[in-house]
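user: At home tonight, take the chain set out below, taking as long as you need, and be ready to discuss the fold:
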Amino acid sequence: MNEELLRISEDLVKRASVEGFNESAALSISTRRTMLKVANSEPSVIQHWNSLSVIIYLAKDKRIIIMEFYPRDESEIYKSMADLLKVAAKIMESPLYAPLPEPIEVKPLDGLVDKEIVERLEEPSALAEVAIEAAHRENIDSMAGTIDLWYREKALSTSSGASLYEDSTGFQTYLRAFAEPSGSGQWSTCSTRLDLRSIEETALTAAKYAVESRYREKVEVGRYDVIMSPMVFGNLLELTMHMASAFNVLMGLSMFMNKKPGDKVASDKLRVFDEPRNTELPRATSFDDEGVPTYNKAVIDGGIFKTLLHNSKTASKMSATTTGNAGWISPAPWNITVNRGDYSLDEMISEVKRGILVTNNWYTRLQNYVEGVFSTVSRDAVFLIENGKISKSIEKIRIADRLPSILNNIEALGKNVYNIMWWEVTIPSKLPYILIKDVNVTKPTL
């Protein structure tokens, strides 16, 4: 245990009491991180970071202040704390105020630290060599991407009596391959433990899609059955899970505003979980930002809405119980998982008479949160499916539809699941390919 990190948090909570705050919490996070960038099939840049961030929660007469610091020393925070008390009386009382929860015994998670990741932080170049060699087994022209490794420690102290420490490792990689004249493919993976095979498979998948999409043709707009890769469905599911945050429901930013547990919100084939205690995925943790023990939970189970995600404040406001998903402001999912199905990708394709396989996407935007109206643009390989077979690679498309329709029109799920994490899927997710009926496809530009 890093006793110094826990001491920082505990001292800040004591100081907050001396300064006159009724309640306080301090979360100190120390991170060692290395990012290896690949460009033109060569390792290009290795960047190293050592950082300390301190996030402080302060409450005075139901008025809440939250600040984040990257301090050179603790005296900077102490001075700011004294200054903040002077303005606390001018702040409106929080309509979501609730006392910090009393400590509950937290069962630690085993297996969150991988020694190999810690060792590779100094020199990760061999990982790039694995990816580059694998990608060039296919007839590509070049590849690019990043391999990101980290060792992270966090220490939480609260005025209600919590004093907790946890350390963990993680890695994520996303790799993009290019094949002339216009082929490109991308894939991603992540874990708490370094897995050379998963890096190799990520590179191979990206390269395979690049080669298969090198010659692209136009496609008519209209309604299609769409197979979404884990990259694509992971992006849309992350939006969905953020809408399951009770805070977003209270703020009017959720399609679950008019739903309650027990309502049908998706195909009965779909099961979606928040799994903070899944030690394979990089945001695994035994406690949330309020010191509440985490637990795995279904959010959608057999198409039925099961629960909103709560911290103590949203739970108090909505007469519910915290789900261990704090966020001092907004509760959020830790890791997202989806159940396996019965189909291989080839079997899923064989079920489609007229459809599209979308392997990657970006520029996802919500036009109406309550109705879940969104659009997203394909990136990299896209394929037309005709009579149960991929017939050709096609140019970019835009999916413009409603999230409730996407969830309710799920027809089949793949039996293989993939760990996904990159800039369009920021919450680690483990999920399969998914076939969705009757999706609206338009031109990529308006």
User: Anything to note?
Assistant: DSSP finds ten helices and 22 strands in the chain. The CA atoms of residues 39 and 444 lie 27 Å apart. The mean pLDDT is 96. Residues 215-446 form one domain.
